[in-house]
């Protein structure tokens, strides 16, 4: 590696640059590789709140993984809204049909 201060090539294990005496900060490789994750996307799909939290936590260090969590959360929220709309439409349609049946049965009585 190279000294960030004077640019001289120094040993990778060096803590202090032998040429200028600057403390060399170790470049720590990220423990977890940042890659998009299907499973975190799926988790976020079912638990959008979790996805949102993961997105906030990861957005700086692991943008790709954060993105998959964020997209999962968004899709989960949209799916939830669509599902609740469909459900309410279905329920109102059912109740309409039921009232129709009841009205019909009372008509013939
Ligand atoms: Zn140096």
Please outline the helices and strands:
Elements: H1 38-46, H2 48-58, H3 63-107
Zinc ion binds at residues 3, 5-6, 8, 17, 19-20, 22.
What level of helicity do the residues show? 55-70%
Low-confidence stretches: none
Alpha-beta content class:
mainly alpha
The overall pLDDT, averaged over residues, is: 87
N-to-C terminal Cα separation, in Å? 93 Å
In percent, how much strand structure appears in the residues? under 5%
From the alpha carbons, calculate the radius of gyration and give it in angstroms: 29 Å
Number of strands: 0
**Main sheet overview:** none
Supply the number of helical segments. Answer: 3
Give the overall silhouette: rod-shaped
The small-molecule ligands in this entry are:
zinc ion
Provide tags for this entry:
0% strand; 2 domains; 60% helix; mainly alpha; 109 residues; binds zinc ion
């Amino acid at each position: 590696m190279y000294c960030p201060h004077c640019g001289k090539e120094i040993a990778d294990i060096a803590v202090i640059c032998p040429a200028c005496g600057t403390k060399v900060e170790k470049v720590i490789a990220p423990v977890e590789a940042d890659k998009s994750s299907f499973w975190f996307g799926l988790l976020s799909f079912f638990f959008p709140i979790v996805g949102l939290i993961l997105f906030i936590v990861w957005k700086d260090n692991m943008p790709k993984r954060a993105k998959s969590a964020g997209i999962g959360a968004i899709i989960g929220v949209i799916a939830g809204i669509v599902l609740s709309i469909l459900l309410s439409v279905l329920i109102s349609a059912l109740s309409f049909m039921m009232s129709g049946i009841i009205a019909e049965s009372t008509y013939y009585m």
